Amino acid sequence: MSTLPNVHVLPDSAWLSHLHLSMRNRSANLNTFTHHANQVIRLLLQSAAQHLPYSDETVTTPIGDPFTGKALVRDVCGVSVIRAGESMESEFRAMFPHQPIGKILIQRDKESKLPHYLYSHLPAGIAGMSVMLFEPMLATGGSLLKAIDILKESGVAIENMIVVNVLASPAGIQRLVETWPDLTIITSSIEKGMTDSAFMRPGIGDFGDRYFGTYPGVHHE
């Protein structure tokens, strides 16, 4: 559990531990990895949905009784940090079938480790939406901070952003929180640290490569 008020780690459970065990195994084939990753992603999105703004709304049930529940105050936009973030789009679509998805492409220089913004395509009116920002791996935090800058330039308030993340390093979390204290972050694990190559440990490898089947030596069956 995190002691930071806006950082929310999925509750520890035997089931979540099972999903992580299956994903993190270097021997997991493509189907095994994506099957278990999708279940973690769904848990993350359900957790993120708890932090959206709602208002009370009353409907009439088939027997004529009133029922008061929660209705979303505004539209929700998913925004993928290409490419790993695109792994979350399918589960987002299943939960929010009528909501848009935007894209941001940021490439990290392999030597300097600095992020370079290359491209974005965001829906009109995004400034008035709640935004779930999809970035499975939060290591140094540089790419995510750059993506947040792009969203802010498009008029999205920090208070209306929710980062949806699978694994985060302590340093990456701290960097984000120090830069944007009001940013909401949902993750399934805060890792022990990072290697000199900025891979998290114990880690999962390159999430995008493993999810999309381009990891060196990946087994597809």
Please name the defining characteristics of this protein.
alpha/beta, uracil phosphoribosyltransferase activity, Rossmann fold, PRTase-like, 8-stranded mixed beta sheet, two-stranded antiparallel ribbon, 221 residues
The main β sheet shows up as:
8 strands, mixed
Overall tally of structural domains: 1
- How is the quaternary structure best described? single chain
Can you tell me the CATH architecture? 3-Layer(aba) Sandwich
In total, the number of strands is 12
CATH topology: Rossmann fold
Overall geometry comes to: globular
Averaged pLDDT, please? 94
Bin the helical content.
25-40%
Beta-strand percentage?
Answer: 25-35%
User: Over the alpha carbons, how many angstroms does the gyration radius reach?
Assistant: 18 Å
Q: Which class do the helix and strand fractions yield?
A: alpha/beta
User: Which segments are poorly predicted (pLDDT under 50) over 5 or more consecutive residues?
Assistant: none
Topology as a string of helices (H) and strands (E): EHHEEEHEEEEHEHEEEH
Termini separation: 35 Å
> What's the tally of helices?
6
CATH C-level name:
Alpha Beta
